[in-house]
Amino acid sequence: MDYFKVSKADGLNGIVKISGAKNASLPLIAMTLLAKNSVTINNLPEVVDIKTLLKLLENLGAKTVLKNGSATIDTSSVNDTKATYDIVKTMRASILVLGPLLARFGRCEVSLPGGCAIGQRPIDLHLKALEQMGATITIESGYVRAEAPDGLVGTHIVFDKVTVTGSANIITAASLARGKTIITNAAREPEVVQLCEILRLSGVSIDGIGTAELTIYGTDRRLLCIEPFEIIPDRIEAGTYLCAAAISRSKITLKKVRADHLESVLSKLMQMGIKIEHDSDTITIYPSKSLNPVDIITQEYPGFPTDMQAQFMALCTQADGVSTIEERLFENRFMHVSELQRLGAKITLKGNSATIEGSCQLHGCDVMATDLRASSALVIAALVASGQTDIHRIYHLERGYERLVEKFKNIGANIERLKE
Ligand code: EPZ
Would you say the pTM of this structure is higher than 0.90? Predict the structure, then answer.
């Protein structure tokens, strides 16, 4: 397996072009199962998770071509509705095909995604909602078997908890259902908003886009004609580079980024005393001599994103004082703590809260990536750790960060990808 060798940076400088959002791409790729035409998606990040979902669609009989960040996906040839364990086990977001497959074909089997490093991550809310829409759901031998031979019927769904992929599954299912579906307590993430916007542009009438209450008027299994579209910028990738600039006291500019998708992240950075300027599609962050400690609570959008929690924890090790981070979405999203502690970070955990004492000198050593965002936190910490840091199991990073080594090298980071 490969690893990253990272040495202390003498500050970063330059421009980072932000890629398309992984978490917008996945539901939109699944959505092509609702199309009668071949769909073109532009600005896709060429990362492992995207390739995995395209492979899943191909296993179902679809034709897909991914080249230079553009994919054409033709699902008219889909002749199978079983998403098998071998591929679902590599990416739990494969569950996103459940809604569209069931809505279009009236039946499907999707391997249970299982948990992952950050938590058990159940899909009970997805399944309960589909049952309310008339589906018969059974769990057998590790598979969700869903049947709705006469199609799904619109109804009023109230999510007990905000679920991003749960919302996406029901939005796509409701798009082909008979009648009106109201979703209360829907996720408001920009990735869910874009899914609704593309569906509306494709002929599905949707009210309340961007709010927690969506009303979707289904087409009663009439397939959609979906025009080419471009994936929104990845707000988590952008936030990751902002943390890298902040920790290394650097000035960098992000291009092709949506500052309005990052308000809670920019607010925390400014609370830390960092100067930030932005316009419609760029963000510039300036060096700050000192960093104020902060208190963070992760919440659903527009609150502080859980996907930025690990990166800020690395940053807080350099703040002048004690910071706290409370993780409210996942029960085990502190896997990066022990790795940061290996670098010398002074972090104590109590339940789902972390206390980070800063500022603390970090010292390079061998560390291990445990999940996608935890891995990026280790790269951020390694930029200021003395000496060399070797980050192992970097396959986690490849799932969601496009051309990470190239982008970091272009702004002056000392990072190499080497063979174990
Ligand atoms: C999405 O995961 C993202 N993944 C995650 O990003 C992100 O961390 C998460 O939303 C929260 O923002 C994609 O979009 C592909 P949830 P998702 O359903 O949809 C509980 C990354 O790093 N829950 O919103 O799986 C669940 O256990 C990844 O890019 C239920 O209890 O998250 C969690 O506590 C990591 N039952 C909370 O809700 C359900 O049926 C939020 O989960 C569904 C969820």
Answer: yes
